[in-house]
TrEMBL record:
Domain of life: Archaea
Protein name: Isocitrate/isopropylmalate dehydrogenase family protein
Family label: Belongs to the isocitrate and isopropylmalate dehydrogenases family.
Gene3D superfamilies the record matches: Isopropylmalate Dehydrogenase
Keyword Oxidoreductase carried by entry: yes
Record Pfam families: Iso_dh
InterPro entries xrefs: IsoCit/isopropylmalate_DH_CS, IsoPropMal-DH-like_dom, LEU3_arc
The keyword NAD belongs to this UniProt entry's keyword annotation: yes
PROSITE patterns found in the cross-reference section: IDH_IMDH
Cofactor(s) annotated in UniProt: Mg(2+)
Residue intervals of the Isopropylmalate dehydrogenase-like domain: 2-322
Species this chain originates from: Methanosarcina baikalica
Keywords noted in UniProt: Magnesium, Metal-binding, NAD, Oxidoreductase
Length: 330
């Protein structure tokens, strides 16, 4: 299996090496393909990502990605959007599950659900016009896009509690009524129990009653907002992994960003990146991936944690501790 390893910018250069140590502990036959992409490269060369990089990535099976710094410059080509579009990574998957001993803003730890976000259309269609007195963005919701994200959500639901929540704003947006109907039809065809919620009501309910939900499916913008909001349930954006899944490729990325204010200090929390390794292993069918959960529980119990969680360990020390636990217990 070929894995593109892209550290990117800022703390991506610290958390990805720590995560790779955990991956290496499994002793799997990976061919790692390192690539330099992002703002640091753009500053030096004028190119953040090239057509040649895309071809190299397409020659791999999956991508382990750190973080990139995005700048407001018309000449800067977004690395993330380019990869998502070129590889047609239509499903953004965000598990929301508490870590042992870490309590989020609600003080609860009785939840375990997955947010499934359509990742290629909606208000992120890229079809826009900007004028002196009027700007507009076209919201695109297609049957193909809605059916395939609903199918993916149903596949996940059938492996869990067979329960799907469809999130929308169909009382205002006709395109959301279209999305809702397709999701309902898909759930029925798959024998998955479903309900639907307006996005504003859902935002409230996720904070008040997160234990009610199993798999949540929604459109691009709503999923973007809700998934970051739900990181507060876990305790931090620095603890949340994500996956971008397509028919052929998969892309795994912690959601915390490049954090330039702490970059280079060796104190960034690598747990989200390590959880991305767990998602990668699960995607590729490696049955031993749950040992990563055990390893993370171990380092949290032993207080081998970075300063953001109240500890004194460095990024690499946390990565080494998780990797050593994995190697001992496989």
């Amino acid at each position: 299996m070929k894995l593109a390893v892209i550290e990117g910018d800022g703390i991506g250069r610290e958390v990805i090496p720590a995560a790779v140590k955990v991956l290496d502990a499994f002793g799997l036959d990976f061919e790692k393909v390192p690539l330099e992409l992002g703002y640091t490269r753009w500053e030096r060369t004028g190119t953040a990502i090239s057509n040649s990089d895309i071809e190299t990535i397409k020659g791999c099976d999956a991508i382990l990605f750190g973080a990139v710094t995005t700048v407001q410059d018309p000449n800067y080509k977004s690395v993330l959007l380019t990869i998502r579009k070129e590889l047609d990574l239509y499903a953004n998957i965000r598990p929301v599950k508490p870590l042992p001993g870490i309590i989020g803003v609600t003080g609860r730890s009785d939840f375990d659900f997955i947010l499934v976000r359509e990742n290629t259309e909606g208000l992120y269609s890229g079809i826009e016009e900007i004028g002196p007195d009027l700007c507009w963005t076209k919201r695109v919701v297609t049957r193909k896009g809605s059916e395939r994200i609903a199918e993916y959500a149903c596949k996940l639901a059938k492996k869990r509690r067979n329960k799907l929540t469809i999130v929308h704003k169909s009382n205002v947006l006709k395109s959301d009524k279209f999305f809702l109907n397709i999701c309902r039809q898909t759930a029925t065809a798959n024998g998955v129990e479903y309900e639907d919620m307006l996005v504003d009501s859902m935002a409230y309910s996720l904070m008040m009653h997160p234990e009610k939900y199993d798999v949540v499916v929604t459109t691009n913008l709503f999923g973007d907002i809700l998934s970051d909001m739900c990181a507060a349930l876990v305790g931090s954006l620095g603890l949340v992994p994500s996956a971008n899944i397509g028919e052929k490729y998969a892309f795994f990325e912690p959601v915390h960003g490049s954090a330039p204010d702490i970059a280079g200090k060796g104190i960034a929390n690598p747990l989200a990146a390590i959880l991305c390794v767990k998602m990668l292993l699960e995607w590729m069918g490696e049955q031993r991936y749950p040992v990563i959960d055990e390893a993370i529980a171990h380092v949290l119990l032993k207080k081998i944690i970075t300063p953001d969680l109240g500890g004194k360990a460095s990024t690499l020390e946390v990565g080494n501790a998780v990797a050593e636990f994995v190697a001992r217990h496989l």
